[in-house]
Automatic annotation (TrEMBL):
Role according to the record: Component of the Mediator complex, a coactivator involved in the regulated transcription of nearly all RNA polymerase II-dependent genes. Mediator functions as a bridge to convey information from gene-specific regulatory proteins to the basal RNA polymerase II transcription machinery. Mediator is recruited to promoters by direct interactions with regulatory proteins and serves as a scaffold for the assembly of a functional preinitiation complex with RNA polymerase II and the general transcription factors.
Coarse class of the protein's main subcellular location: nucleus
Oligomer status and interactors: Component of the Mediator complex.
Keyword Membrane among record annotations: no
Signal peptide feature range: none
Presence of the UniProt keyword Methyltransferase in the record: no
Name listed for the protein in its UniProt record: Mediator of RNA polymerase II transcription subunit 21
GO terms, biological process: regulation of transcription by RNA polymerase II
SUPFAM superfamilies for the chain: Mediator hinge subcomplex-like
PANTHER family: MEDIATOR OF RNA POLYMERASE II TRANSCRIPTION SUBUNIT 21 (PTHR13381:SF0), RNA POLYMERASE II HOLOENZYME COMPONENT SRB7 (PTHR13381)
Keywords, comma-separated and alphabetical: Activator, Nucleus, Transcription, Transcription regulation
Organism taxonomic ancestry: Eukaryota, Viridiplantae, Streptophyta, Embryophyta, Tracheophyta
């Protein structure tokens, strides 16, 4: 599997883990009394170690993503060369677009 596919899988993993972390935190959050006009909230269920495990999973996934990004090959010439190449490609696309428009 190429590195871009691995990066995409890792992003998907981070998104799924983040979704689960927020859902778990929301589910396990202790009730709060909004106003003195409302009755006391019911007692909350005992907390589990699940949020800690999910947080550790999220950190692990982020570190794996960073490792994959670090493994990407460096481009030749750095940022200036990349910007020059992008400008060149944009110019070529513009010229091709004009030719197609004439046809």
């Amino acid at each position: 599997m190429d590195i871009i596919s691995q990066l995409q899988e890792q992003v998907n993993s981070i998104a799924a883990t983040t979704f689960n972390v927020f859902g778990t935190l929301q589910r396990d959050a202790p009730p709060v009394q909004l106003s003195l006009n409302y009755p006391d909230p019911p007692p909350s269920a005992p907390t589990t170690d699940e949020p800690k495990q999910l947080s550790a999973d999220l950190v692990k996934a982020a570190k794996q993503f960073d490792a994959l990004v670090a493994a990407l090959p460096l481009s030749d010439g750095g940022e200036e060369a990349q910007l020059k190449r992008i400008a060149q490609l944009q110019m070529e696309n513009h010229v091709i677009g004009q030719e197609l428009h004439k046809q």
